[in-house]
Amino acid sequence: MAVVQIKGKSQLSGEVLISGSKNSVLPIMAASVLCQGVTILEHCPDISDVHDMIKILESLGAKVSFEAGTLKIDTTERTEHEVHEKDAKKIRASILFLGPLLAKDKKVKIGYPGGCNIGKRPIDIHVDGLMHINAGFMMGKDYLVCETFALVGDRVKLRYPSVGATQNIMMAATLANGKTVIENAAREPEIVYLARHLRSMGADISGEGTSQITIAGVEELHPCRTVIPYDRVVAATYLILAHVTKSEISISPISDTGDISDVISLIQNAGGNIKQNGTILNYHPTSKNFPIQIETGPFPKVPTDIQSMSMVMGITATGESSIRESVFENRFTFVDEMRKMGADIQVDGDVAIVKGPQELYGASVCVPDLRAGAALCIAALVAEGVTQIANWELIERGYENFVQNLRHLGADIEYC
Ligand code: EPZ
């Protein structure tokens, strides 16, 4: 178990290059099995979730190379359509092979997905949606088997705008017979980027970014080259870090601020000053630090992935903040770790109340999930004294060069 030590209080400064988006690249990697040939993905983040997806692609018979941020996936000789249980349960994104393998091979055997322990995270919406377009399922204890004689397009209404389920159904529908309309589809930027990638592969798809996505099935798809957009959650992490440590920090390349406009507004309403200069966002500290009132939800609401980090905004703000988590039922588990650092956070069901400003002090804490780990790291930079953070490898699932970047900004941080 990796342990990192951080000595606070820290005031930082400098520039950070934001890596490619984990939650954009993972579905696009899965989409490579929809065609035969070489898919090229540039600005791909060097994070452990990507390496776990590479392992699955290689187990399916694809040839993969990853050098200097460019990922090449050659599916010319892919023959397998089984995702092994031990590989599937390492990450949530493994389930994203279900739709494309079903579409291309008409049969999939796949272990159940793993991922952060932020809730039960069932896959019923994925299954119901694919059954609607003529897929049959056998749900085993460790595996599910899904097959079809032919996928047939239909109207699919999701009971909840699940990101992963929208992605799976989109990918499956690209090769179905006829037209599929997904209603109550997820609207996250990651849906938009996947749709653009599928369109570059020859898919007939429209409506991405709205609640209704239409896909007209085609005979076959071909490989393409895509530049992965910046990671909006990683960008948000550094902006929130700058705000709570009152640091002058610039982040780039921010190609489309629309993907983080909610976070920019949240920080500006809390008193932070963010200026855009081309594809660079500059954070300037001010003397103001107002409390926040947020409710997480499906895009365009505040993303659940920044909920734990926004808690540190409440801790440093002057006044009472309230944070409602409405996406995952178990995403306050990090609060106990924050309390070890002296945080006073009152949790009542899905709402957390924080009265700031509070002084935090260094402690030994353990990362419960990826984004909570980033929040604990930010808290350690605000705290007085030394914090030891265990289970650091969970952070490295989604943050490229996190220790190096923080050290570059002036943080006193080292692996133990
Ligand atoms: C994606 O997870 C992201 N992961 C998550 O980021 C993100 O928090 C989430 O979307 C919400 O934006 C990846 O893209 C790899 P959902 P996903 O299906 O697709 C329930 C991170 O830290 N649900 O939109 O799994 C589910 O339990 C991760 O980068 C069902 O009930 O999220 C949850 O309560 C964490 N049945 C809600 O819907 C289903 O079949 C949202 O889940 C599917 C989901």
Describe this structure as you would to a colleague.
It is a single chain. The chain contains 13 helices and 24 strands. The chain has 416 residues and is an alpha/beta fold. α1 runs parallel beside α2 and α5 packs parallel to α6 (163-173). The termini are close together. It binds ligand EPZ.
Which ions and ligands are bound to the chains?
ligand EPZ
Mean pLDDT: 97
| Assigned CATH architecture of the largest domain | Alpha-beta prism
* Strand line-up across the major sheet: 22-23-1-24
Query: How much strand content do the residues show?
Result: 25-35%
Span between termini: 11 Å
Shape: globular
> What is the helix fraction of residues, given as a range?
25-40%
Per CATH, the superfamily of the largest domain is Enolpyruvate transferase domain
Number of helices: 13
Round the Cα radius of gyration to an integer and report it.
Answer: 21 Å
In CATH's first tier, which class of the largest domain applies? Answer: Alpha Beta
When the domains are counted, the total is: 2
Structural class category: alpha/beta
Tally of DSSP β-strands: 24
